[in-house]
Design a protein that fits this description.
It is built from 19 helices and 53 strands. It is of the alpha+beta class. The strands form 12 sheets. The chain has a 9-stranded antiparallel β-sheet with strand order 32-33-34-35-44-41-40-37-38, covered by helices on one side. Strands 3-2-5-10-7-8 form a 6-stranded antiparallel β-sheet. 53% of the residues are buried.
Length: 991
Amino acid sequence: MHDDRHIVEQRLDRVLHQRIKPAQHTDPHPMDIAVWHTPGEPVPVTEALNATYQPTHIGQPWGPAWGTAWFRLTATIPEHWAGHTVEALINLGSTPERPGFQCEGLCYTPDGTPLKAINPLNTHLPLPAAPGTHTIYVEAAANPDILGPRGFQPTDLGNHPTPDGPPLYQLRQADIALRHTETAALFHDAEVLDQLMRQLPENSPRRHEILRALERMLDTLDLHDIPGTATTARNQLTDALTSPAHPSAHQISAVGHAHIDSAWLWPIRETIRKIARTLANVTTLLDTHDFHFAMSQAQQLAWIKTHHPQLHDRVRHHINNGGIVPVGGMWVESDTNLPGGEALARQLIHGKRFYLDEYGIETREVWLPDSFGYSAALPQLIKQSGNHWFLTQKLSWNQTNRFPHHTFHWEGIDGTRIFTHFPPADTYNAEITGAELARAQNNFAEHGYAHHSLLPFGHGDGGGGPTRDMLERAHRTHNLEGSPQVHLHTPTQFFTTAQNDHTHPAVYTGELYLEGHRGTYTSQARTKQGNRRSEHLLREAELWATTATITTGEPYPYDELDDIWKQVLLHQFHDILPGSSIAWVHREAETTYTHLAQRLNTLITHAQRTLAGHGDQPITFNAAPHTHHDIPALGATTTRAPAPTTPQRQPDGTITLDNGLIRATLDTHGLINAVHDHTTDREALAAPANLLQIHPDHPNHWDAWDIDGFYRHTVTDLTDLDSLDIVDNTVVLQRTYQNSTITQTLSVPAGEKRVDITTDIDWHESEKLLKAAFPLDIHADHSASETQFGHVKRPTHTNTSWDNARFEICAHRYIHVSEPDYGHALVNDATYGHDVTRHTRDDDGTTTTIRLSLLRAPRFPDPDTDHGHHTLRYALCIGADITEAARQGYRINLPTRTHHGSNPVTPLITLDNAGVIVEALKLADDRSGDLIVRLYEARGAQARAHLTTNFPATTITRTDLLERPTHDPQPPDTPLQLRPFEIRTLRITRA
């Protein structure tokens, strides 16, 4: 036979998309159009319905960036349309290239009831078939395309809007039309077979059978009467569509989803509207179709409950019926690298509790498809929150190494294992196309061991979620030869089936490091600083409020703490805290953090003054979990601060700071060129330290997200000095680099083997990376970086491609390197990005250099990222082991506070093991008055500890993170036995 396949395929492509697809709607009638442009920010629907509208027409420009226009559309349905399917077709000005990131709208009835959204690839609105006049209102949002056609270009569109800006869109369509269901069915039949055919091998018999069936369909179809010949044409495809799947076909659980970033290239206020549009679509689709929609962020449902109560009632109805399935068990889809331990626990606590309280649903999976890597502390937190499974796909973005598994056990730092799945289609915005199904099947790493994978489908980020077209594809691929078998499942159905199917999965241990987006450890330093401050202020507020309640009877501020926690958790969303959102988002975040700090400091001050009582003695409070200068951990007492260390200028111009434990020497360039440990008679440094270094920072893509390894090819050491002075008990130096000035204040506190450095930066650079280098005379083959509730060890060498890809790493309050019996730590108060490298000595030994990533200056999506003033604090801790590193990390983040009074404060609890750390002390969320203590083993070793209460207690009970008992109550003096890095939540009942 002659090979005419390509001719047939070209014919099919044209007819399918140029003839059949448009023929689904016929006999269009224009609607009457009027418009009201809101003068500023969005308004409630009641205000818009009562506004004064002006006539307008197709092609009329509307909408400055971030503006809103309300369109009143009036349709007259003819008498002869009665009983037919009638739809409005509305295009607000979008293009079909992308499902979201453009203008969007939400349709309302004249009484303000939300109907359905209008999105770029979802432009229809069902209308009643009753003849007569029907009016709808469309709240149209002129959201700009920040990425633009070229992507990653600096733009001012991410700033707060100006109402008089130029219009971005033109109204393109506002018609009513008849929908022909048989023509639509023909389109979906042909589309599914066409997509499947193009994925099959060219020599596959099945491919040829499908091609000839489609050719017969084309021959049968009258292109001048598609509705009239659609049924006959469909009959030509029956055999091809009903041929069953192979018994060994891959099994796909398709779960409806709409990944909506809680902020990113739009502000939070627009996220709330995107969620409403999406859920209006989903509930409308669920009224007529059977599928399951996974809703993954409790915060988003809480917003809908507050801002759209009518829509929330529809959502609740479909939750009760199983159509909408709350998943994820977190307040937002949080970043997991940067939040502190207690904050990551609260993400799970608040998310789970919202679903339980609001809908009576206990979620079982953590759903984080888009976060930028996953902390090795997460498996234990997942399990202790009552979850069993974990889902992501982000590691498919790895720049270097292909992750070896799709279904596996993920083991955390403490040994907890969680059943984990990466959807092999490598997307969370699937459309159930033939290409996606083929990729899922061909890419699946566990063939021969397992048969099931999950496919999240639906347009996210303003695209409107799942569509009826996607569901038509799902039904046709449920049992189709040559295709994986698609099942419309819930996440629980998938995980239960997959776990039973794959009974001996491989084990992957440690963090799920994303080989990309490494710049998110550093971008938008003020956002990260606000988060770190808020986390520690919340610790203080809960600690002292609890102590005041139990000691004095002071009322506990349950509601205010709950509200503050939820705001902090919201801003840990994986495009806010990592620093990858538009300027509008980060300026709002900075304002929010300022307000939260004021509220928290008010709570702390009130509780401490209540505890200190009246008097004129200085009472110093220590919120850290370790004793400090005779101030008990979690308590307060009268104490005198030790005498400070006075710097001495030497005849050669160098300056020394010697407190009897260490001697630090600054050279004439202001660098720390020696730190001598008197205790061990050992030099700490391998080369001058606190060396500020500037690198060009031009990643290939994703400016705010990425640091690409080639940045290291060029470096400028900042050694020129403007001034070097002794001021009181500190050394103050200043440097200038191009448009920026850097002032550093160095001191050596009494009684500590520590050099404190405060760096004040007026930063006005562009596309630069600022690092601070500390070459240490330590031979270390790994570093230990604090993560939530412990630390993670990473190689300092680059033996493998996996090691080499970790050229930028995340650490919380400390990073530690050591030989078997001696080491050093760097601690910080708001820095996360680090790198650790090895260098050779003159005598052929190796040394270890730690660098902190202080600031970046990417130009997209915020062209002014990090410009302005910053104060960063870090310290070099000499001769520190892991326990000391943890102590110093808490210390720099929890400075003492002093008030005048007369009452020392006895800690509510004490522990006799320095390696067991109290992370949170609070009253129980059920308002029973019980004390909740969350503690963990911090060294990575088994530990035994005795907890002593300093108030009458009857029992102590182990609980999960949600404070539900997991063990029987025990006497209060029962000793604690903890495994390495174990988290333990205890409920102590007061007598």
